[in-house]
Amino acid sequence: MRITKLEVWALRGPKIARPHWTAHFVVPAGNELLLKMHTSEGITGFGLATSYTPLDPLLKPWKSGYADLIVGESPLTPENLYQKLFALTTSKVANEKGWTREAMIRCSAAVDLACWDIMGKVAGLPLYKMFGGYRDELPVYATCGYYREGKDDNELKDEIQMMMDQGHHSYKVKTGGLSLKEDIKRLEFIRSILGDDKELMVDVNRAWDLRTAIEGVKLLKPLRPRWLEEPIRWEDDRRGLKLLSQQTDIPISGGESEITSYGCRSMIEEQAIQILQFDVTMYGGFTEGKKLAALCEMNHVQVAPHHDCFIHSHLVASTPAGLILEAFCDPERDPMQAELFEDPPVIKNGMMKVPEGPGLGLTLSERAVQKFGERVL
Question: Pick from 346, 330, 359, 371: which is nearest to 142 by CA?
């Protein structure tokens, strides 16, 4: 079996008049590269690459020869193809063509996911069973509590209540965009809405220095957060996370902002985190994701990937280290989750069944692809 044709689409959500913010950057309403892979046996697969920054650097390689390096290869040897594509991050040819290192990492993830989708279809098995099949149902949390211009307590309450009405049991909310005093007050308000029987996770998006984080974990303690996510600024976050972990029993999570599995390995080796949140649509695909899941299991670190509950469900369900999935259930904030797939798995009472169809077990909605997509290749 050989790869015979590739289709590439840029998927972009609509512009929002009042965008959603984390502590310090705007979160787009959907921003994905979609790859459709065709084979000589008529079996097709797809993969996604996610970016919070403009897609143009990810699209450039597909317009200037990147696909030629993939067509003719076998989709049934994803490790081999992934290593070939990852090697472009130190390639003279890629540099001459203006292909950025980040673009090479993101694009290789989409290719890898498409290969694994085909692998599962050839085997006639869902990927979570090919990866180990530890369980077939997973808990899911809803991400919410974004900052917006002019957002008051009433609007915040309406947002949280919308998620509660959907039946979620666990909620991750944003913090770090205000002073520590103001943010703690905001989190206390959110906890009062949720009540004591719901789980609360707190995401700082790398906005605090170590001194603020040490004070923050003390003030957060009465709110009983399940974890504190990316609390330390980027420039020295691994050392800062380790030092912070030594001063609190609130579990620390991170890994979303790494761009390779090697960065995640360092976080684990330095005992900087208790929960790893890599994203196979941003780096590594399932080829590297499987390695990270195994590394987590052997080091008593739990796996709670960033983003895309449907795709990540296969990896989380395959390992005893798997903890929970992240979902974006506000259709304005992320219309892709609501519309990109035909008959996606249903999140009910905070739980989701893993897709049982072969491969990813997901069917793209061509209507959604046309609605959000721009054909690139």
Answer: 330
- 8 Å CB contact between 8 and 34: yes
Closest of 48, 134, 138, 136 to residue 356, by C-alpha: 136
Mean pLDDT by 10 residues, the chain (377 residues): 98 94 94 98 98 94 98 98 98 96 97 98 98 98 98 97 97 98 98 98 98 98 98 96 97 97 96 97 98 98 97 98 97 93 96 98 98 97
DSSP H helices, the chain, are 56-59, 78-86, 92-97, 101-123, 127-130, 153-165, 180-194, 210-220, 237-245, 261-269, 285-298, 309-316, 335-339, 366-372
Buried/exposed 136-149: b ≥16 CB within 10 Å, e otherwise? eebbbbbbbbbbee
Q: Tell me 363's DSSP state.
A: E
Q: Which two tokens mark 49?
A: 């690459």
CA distance 104 to 72: 19
- Total-model pTM: 0.97
Convert 157-178 to b/e letters by CB count within 10 Å (16 or more is b): eebbeebbeeebbbbbbbbbbe
Residue identified by tokens 């609605």 is 371
